[in-house]
Amino acid sequence: MARREIAPEVFLAGVPLFKALDAATLARLAAVTKRRALKRGEVLFRKGDPATGMYVVVYGEVKLIATTPARGPRLAGIVGPGHSFGEPVMFLERPTVVDAQAASDALLLHLPKEAVFAEIERNPKFARRMIAGLSQRIERLVRELDRQALGSGSERFIDYLLRHGKDQAGAFVVTLPAAKAEIASQLNLTPEHFSRILHELAQTGLLQVQGRRITVPDPARLQAATR
Question: Whose CA is closest to 75, among 175, 172, 183, 174?
Fold first, then answer.
């Protein structure tokens, strides 16, 4: 079934970054917003490309992949519906520092940097929202670095699962948003180590693994495994 078309200003009004903005501001931003549909696996931009603005995900998911000579490609994050990306390098006016690739069929809204900069100059409330959004992103990055310091790979993966199921009561299911090797890289694990962790947790009954679909039958018991 075809997805229902949503006007850009309607969608922007529901995104945390743009909430509480007045109708005139939303209309100005929506007027210059461009839709970008991506097929699964399609690359939006590559590291080193010019940063032309920021993106908001309407539906689907986008993988952000960092690459260094020492470690090769590593999943740096996944951006889902209602969230934005691209702001930091847009403000620095530097080339992009990651690859962005669709993890599934996706629809994005692209806001040109010129329009964002003009609105910041015009609207202090919008400027504060942008600052708050970037501050939250820094806070999440610090927390992620803290998680990377957890003692073992099993503890990092268990923490990852419990965070994804934090709003669920009782047993829950997590569908990995990317290939297992990519999730392993995000958790600073080798694919082989990640496979061993999955096998061990499944053997003890803490998880049920079917491809990317992972069932946690008893979250409290899984949490206790990290103590």
Answer: 183
Neighbours of 53 (CB within 10 A): 20
Sheet with strand 172-175: strands edge to edge = 172-175, 213-216, 208-210
What is the full DSSP assignment across 107-164? EEEEEEHHHHHHHHHH-HHHHHHHHHHHHHHHHHHHHHHHHHTSSSHHHHHHHHHHHH
Cα separation, 172 vs 162, in Å, equals 9
Query: What's the predicted TM-score (pTM) here?
Result: 0.77
Q: What is the DSSP letter of 18?
A: G
Distance CA 3, CA 59 (A): 10
DSSP 8-state symbol, 45: E
Reported as a single tens digit per residue, the pLDDT across 154-209 is 888 988 888 887 767 789 999 888 889 999 988 888 899 999 999 999 999 999 99
d(CA 117, CA 52): 12
